[in-house]
Every structure is written in structure tokens, then in C-alpha cells.
């Protein structure tokens, strides 16, 4: 059984702020070093038990967690609203998706193909068997912008548990009270479901997070957040050779083909809706739109922005970074001689006591100013985006290759016969993890085919995804045994197939019987 959840006590705290007002409402104590050490010891002790537990049993644990999230929906949405300012509708939707994705990762585990189980005769009576085993304890660093989707529970935590790894989560300081309550619910759900003690725990505080990265017990780190934070973890963990799966994000491009620009109003409306969604605090936010010159898309974007509401950003630090970033973007465009818009909904407050409200903005830039080293190619977290009008399609496509690689790109075409679309997609596939055709990039489906990752610096591991069935693959590694007897094998390759998973026997895929 899992240990009873108990908050840690220490002199340092993470204060809890309301982004709508800037007022503080309580705080959460940091986890003391000796408590972190005990959590690590318990996780290490649970690792072998989780690895030996059938995927179907782990599915039951995740189902119990999902049910608990749904049961406590009203309480969690209210608490999340107090600490994020994201609004009840957005938070209810995110919580519902979190519960659904938690169920999904359990189903992926039970299906079993992530195990890669294979056995064959390699000559004479010699055999070779190969399968994937869990890495061991995983440290997860929760994100500020998705308190349910990438927090104390969410994609990283659920996929690691599904893969058979104990999880230790570091709470994000943007929502410490919510993190504590979520951790309590997850811990209690695992306890009821019969998971081993040490399967899951929460730590709070910057130093506690560093202690996790440095700990010999931790075998992998999952992180969602800023490029600076992610790369700091990558460099720190490199001393031990520990993989860090950091999803950091950059500027996600949108390309409108010549023929597609006929839908000026629709594209402008979709663009504004996408880059202001959640106050622009999505890693998949479209940050740079390429549009044919003369189509009037930029003017239509400005008209739409005049109706867009201001919204609070998550933290005082993010609000300050947004103000500075927008000023830098406008200055960079001014230096290039452009006419730069435009705060069209009022000034962004500068006093944290007034909350962290931000006004959405758009900046017009030139194609020739999109070069390596330009501030115009750096991410600005919040509801701001660039529009670049192009005269020549070839020159615009060349500019695409000068962008930093990113998580996702959108391409808007006139339909299946669009003469430009194939080349645009070809160029983008070398730059991003996912291309969305005639769809905005902000939506991420939890599915078997989803790829939510991308080349560096969008992520630290371009071979990984943090959403979808492939997410379990981050937390396992392959092993092989030659001339194994049944007692030497995982149940995934036992002759009786007690886990009822697909295997490849002598090169032929064999599915479990119903």
C-alpha cells in the first residue's frame, strides 16, 4: 500500500498568489532534505514491485486516479482558478482531459505493445529474447500553464506510472496549494487501488527539485517549461548520464499559401483565437504567421484584436517577462523600419498589486529580418504574435528554415489541389514534430498517433513525445537474454503469455487470444 500523504514541514515556503489580483492566499512549506531522501528511498524500494506488476493491474491504478479527479472536479477547478486565473471553463475542460488521458495511458499499458516483446531461434538450439523494462524512479517537474495536464498528475506522471516506474513530482510554485491537494488525491487513490508504498510522492521547493535530479535513485527526468529551466536540468543531469525529457517550446510557425489567403477573415479570426487562447500561455501557441502580401490578413488580425479581452498571466514573473518581451519585439521591428502595432485593448498593468493582466498584441515584421540571432525569432510567453507578409513564396519557404525548430506548425491551404502545400509541408517536417494542415496548432490529442515533441531547442530529446501512446517509451529501456528459460523471462515473454500482450515470435507478430 502507498504511504499516507503528509505535507512536509520546513521554514521556506512557496506562497500562493491569485493572478487576477496579485494577492497572496496562503503558502506551502518546502520539503526538507531528509524528507526528500526518505521519499527517494521508498521510491527505490517500490521500483521492482512496479516492474513486476502486470500492465493490466497498473491500468486499474490509473483508472482509480481518473475516477478521483472526476469526483473532486468542483473543488479542484475552484482551487486551480484561485492560483492560475485561467477561468472555470478552461480548467474544467483541462481536468476532464486529464482524467481521460490518465485512463488512456492505463489502456496503452494494458495493451502491451510498448513492451516490444520478441523472441526467436538464432541458430541451432540458441534463442534470443528481448523486451523493455521500466527505468526505475522518475522525477517529474510540473508546468505552470497546465496545472492538470502537466502537473502533479497529467501526461508525464500517468505515462510513467503506466510504464511501471515510481514517480516523484516537484510541485510548480505557480500553484502550490493545488499541487498539494492533487497529490493527496493521487496518493489516496493509489493507496485504495493497492499500489506499492513509494509508488508516488510530491516534493515542494527549488532545492528539493535539485536534490531529485542529483539523486542516484532517479533514473529519468520529465520537464515541461521554459528553455532556460529545461536546459539547466539537462546539464545538471548530464553528470550522471540521466536522460531529461524536457519539452520547452519555441516559436511555432503558421504558413498561409497564396490560394488559401482568400479566406482572410477566417484565417485572421482563427489566428487571434489560437494565439490568445489561455492568454497565450500554450507551448503550442502560433507565434509567427506567414501571409501573402496584399491579402489584408494583418489588418484583419488587428480588427479582431480590438475585440479581444485582456486576461491575467499565471505569475508576476511571467507578466514582467511578457512586458519586456513585447517591448523587445516592437523595438526589433522598429529598427527594421516597420510600422508596429499595437496595444489595442489598453495598457498592460505594471503594478503586481493590480494582478498580472496582459493585453494581446500583434507585430508586423519583414521577411528579411527573420535571421538567426534576431529577437523576432525568440519566444515571448503570452498573448503576442508576429505576422510576416511575403511577396515571394520561395523566399518565405527559405525563411522557414531559418527559424528555430519547434513543436508544431500549421499550414493553411486552398484544398487538396493546392500547388504550394506539398513543398511547405516537406520543408516543415525537418523543423517540427507535428504539422497541422488547415488546423490551428494549439489542440493536442491524447492518442496513439500523437507526436508532441520536436528537434532541439523545442525539446531536449527529438526522439520522444510527451503526449500520446509513445510517451511510455521514455521510461523503459530494452534488455535481451540469450538461451533463456521461462523463469528468466518477463511475463511479457512467458510461454503462457499471462499479461496477454502482443509478442513477436520468430519474427511473426502474435496477438493474444481473446
TrEMBL record:
<dbReference type="Pfam" id="PF00171">
    <property type="entry name" value="Aldedh"/>
</dbReference>
<dbReference type="InterPro" id="IPR016162">
    <property type="entry name" value="Ald_DH_N"/>
</dbReference>
<protein>
    <submittedName>
        <fullName>Aldehyde dehydrogenase family protein</fullName>
    </submittedName>
</protein>
<dbReference type="InterPro" id="IPR050740">
    <property type="entry name" value="Aldehyde_DH_Superfamily"/>
</dbReference>
<feature type="domain" description="Aldehyde dehydrogenase">
    <location>
        <begin position="15"/>
        <end position="454"/>
    </location>
</feature>
<feature type="region of interest" description="Disordered">
    <location>
        <begin position="1"/>
        <end position="31"/>
    </location>
</feature>
<dbReference type="InterPro" id="IPR016163">
    <property type="entry name" value="Ald_DH_C"/>
</dbReference>
<keyword id="KW-0560">Oxidoreductase</keyword>
<dbReference type="InterPro" id="IPR016161">
    <property type="entry name" value="Ald_DH/histidinol_DH"/>
</dbReference>
<dbReference type="InterPro" id="IPR015590">
    <property type="entry name" value="Aldehyde_DH_dom"/>
</dbReference>
Amino acid at each position: 500500500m502507498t504511504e499516507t500523504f503528509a505535507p512536509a514541514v520546513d521554514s521556506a515556503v512557496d506562497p500562493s498568489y491569485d493572478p487576477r489580483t496579485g494577492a497572496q492566499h496562503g503558502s506551502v512549506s518546502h520539503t526538507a532534505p531528509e524528507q526528500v531522501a526518505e521519499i527517494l528511498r521508498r521510491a527505490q524500494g517500490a521500483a521492482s514491485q512496479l516492474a513486476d506488476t502486470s500492465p493490466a493491474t497498473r491500468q486499474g491504478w490509473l483508472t482509480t486516479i481518473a475516477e478521483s479527479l472526476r469526483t473532486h472536479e468542483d473543488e479542484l477547478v475552484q482551487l486551480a482558478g484561485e492560483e492560475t486565473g485561467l477561468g472555470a471553463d478552461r480548467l474544467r475542460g483541462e481536468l476532464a482531459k486529464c482524467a481521460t488521458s490518465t485512463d488512456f495511458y492505463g489502456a496503452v499499458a494494458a495493451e502491451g505493445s510498448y513492451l516490444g516483446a520478441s523472441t526467436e531461434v538464432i541458430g541451432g538450439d540458441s534463442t534470443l529474447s528481448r523486451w523493455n523494462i521500466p527505468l526505475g524512479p522518475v522525477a517529474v517537474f510540473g508546468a505552470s500553464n497546465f496545472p492538470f495536464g502537466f502537473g502533479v498528475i497529467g501526461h508525464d506522471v500517468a505515462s510513467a506510472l503506466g510504464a511501471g516506474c515510481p514517480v516523484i513530482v516537484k510541485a510548480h510554485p505557480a500553484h502550490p496549494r493545488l499541487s498539494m491537494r492533487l497529490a493527496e488525491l493521487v496518493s489516496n487513490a493509489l493507496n485504495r487501488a493497492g499500489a506499492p508504498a513509494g509508488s508516488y510522492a510530491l516534493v515542494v521547493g527549488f532545492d528539493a527539485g535539485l536534490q531529485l535530479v542529483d539523486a542516484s535513485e532517479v533514473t529519468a527526468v520529465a520537464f515541461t517549461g521554459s528553455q532556460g529551466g529545461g536546459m539547466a536540468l539537462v546539464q545538471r543531469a548530464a553528470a550522471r548520464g540521466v536522460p531529461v525529457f524536457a519539452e520547452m517550446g519555441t516559436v511555432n510557425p503558421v504558413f498561409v499559401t497564396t490560394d488559401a489567403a482568400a479566406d482572410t477573415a477566417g484565417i485572421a479570426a482563427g489566428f487571434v483565437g489560437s494565439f490568445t487562447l489561455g492568454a497565450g500561455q500554450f507551448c503550442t501557441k502560433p507565434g509567427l504567421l506567414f501571409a501573402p502580401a496584399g491579402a489584408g490578413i494583418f489588418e484583419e488580425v488587428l480588427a479582431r484584436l480590438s475585440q479581444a479581452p485582456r486576461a491575467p498571466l499565471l505569475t508576476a514573473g511571467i507578466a514582467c517577462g511578457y512586458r519586456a518581451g513585447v517591448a523587445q519585439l516592437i523595438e526589433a521591428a522598429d529598427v527594421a523600419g516597420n510600422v508596429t502595432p499595437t496595444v489595442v485593448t489598453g495598457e498592460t498593468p505594471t503594478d503586481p498589486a493590480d494582478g498580472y493582466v496582459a493585453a494581446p498584441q500583434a507585430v508586423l515584421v519583414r521577411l528579411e529580418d527573420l535571421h538567426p540571432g534576431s529577437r523576432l525569432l525568440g519566444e515571448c510567453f503570452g498573448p503576442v504574435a508576429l505576422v510576416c507578409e511575403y511577396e515571394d513564396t520561395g523566399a518565405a519557404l527559405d525563411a522557414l528554415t531559418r527559424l528555430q525548430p519547434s513543436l508544431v506548425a500549421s499550414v493553411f491551404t486552398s484544398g487538396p489541389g493546392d500547388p504550394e502545400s506539398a513543398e511547405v509541408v516537406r520543408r516543415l517536417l525537418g523543423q517540427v514534430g507535428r504539422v497541422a494542415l488547415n488546423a490551428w496548432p494549439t489542440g493536442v490529442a491524447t492518442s496513439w498517433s500523437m507526436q508532441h515533441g520536436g528537434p532541439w531547442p523545442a525539446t531536449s530529446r527529438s526522439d520522444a513525445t510527451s503526449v500520446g501512446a509513445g510517451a511510455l517509451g521514455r521510461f523503459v529501456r530494452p534488455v535481451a537474454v540469450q538461451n533463456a528459460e521461462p523463469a528468466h523471462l518477463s511475463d511479457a515473454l512467458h510461454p503462457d503469455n499471462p499479461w496477454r500482450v502482443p509478442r513477436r515470435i520468430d519474427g511473426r507478430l502474435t496477438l493474444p487470444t481473446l
